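Researcher: I'm preparing a figure for a lab meeting and need a structural model of a single chain. I don't have an experimental structure, so a prediction will have to do for now. The sequence is pasted below. Please return the structure as C-alpha cells so I can convert it later.
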Amino acid sequence: ALHGRFGEDGTMQGMFALSDVPVVGPGILASAAGMDKEFSKKLMAAEGLPIGREVILRDRSELSDAEKNLLGLPVFVKPARGGSSIGISKVTSWEDMAAAINLAREHDEKVIVESEIVGPEVECGVLQYPDGRIVASAPALLHGTEEGDGGFYDFDTKYLDNVVTAEIPAPLEEDMTQLIQSLAVETFQALACEGLARVDFFVTTNGPVLNEINTMPGFTPISMYPQMFAASGVDYEELLDTLVQQALHRGSN
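Model: Understood. Here is the structure written out cell by cell.
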C-alpha cells in the first residue's frame, strides 16, 4: 500500500493509468480529492452528507472575527493535504493560532481549520466487488483517541503509544450502525471511489458527522480495515482476492 503524497494522491495512480497497469483502489480523481480535505469535504457537502464547520486558509495566516464566531473554540488546525495526523494542532485559545498555522504550513501551504466535533470516533470500511456491488463493513469504535499529548488522536497515539483500542463491531444501536454504513457507502460514491476506502466519523448527540475518507487505508492483517471486514465475515485472503479481481476487471473495461 502506498500512503501519503505521491502515493495516494493520484500521482502514482496517474502513472499506472498511463502505463495501462491495473491498480487496486480508487483512481486518479478520487485519490486526489480524497487526499485534499478541502475538496473531499466539498464533494461530501454537495451530496448532502453531514460534515463539520471549517475554514480554508491559503494566502493568509489569521481568521476573521466572523470565521472565529463560526468555528468557536476549540479548533483543529491541519495541513489540507496530509495524513497520519502529522502537523495537526488542537487550539483552545486564539492566541495560539499563528503557531498552529505555521506548524501546519511546514507540511502544506494550504491549511484547514475545523471546529471540534464532540463524540466517540467510529470507522467503517467500504469494499467494491468486481460486479460493482459496494458493501460496508461492521463499524469499529475507537477507545483512547483522546490520550495523545495534544488531547486528540495524534501521530504518536496512532502509531507509537499503543493506547488506542478498537471495539469491532462497534456496540451501537442497529439503526445507528446501518446509518453509518449507509453514509460510508454514500461518501465512497460521492468521491467516485473504486475498490476500497475507510470512512471516519464522530458520533454526536445529533447523529454521525463525517471526519474524513481514507482512500488507501492501512492494510496489514492487524490494520483496522481488514479487521472490520473480518468481523463482517470477509477474511484477509478473500479481501485481497476481491480487490485484485476488482482492479483487473476495471482495467479490462
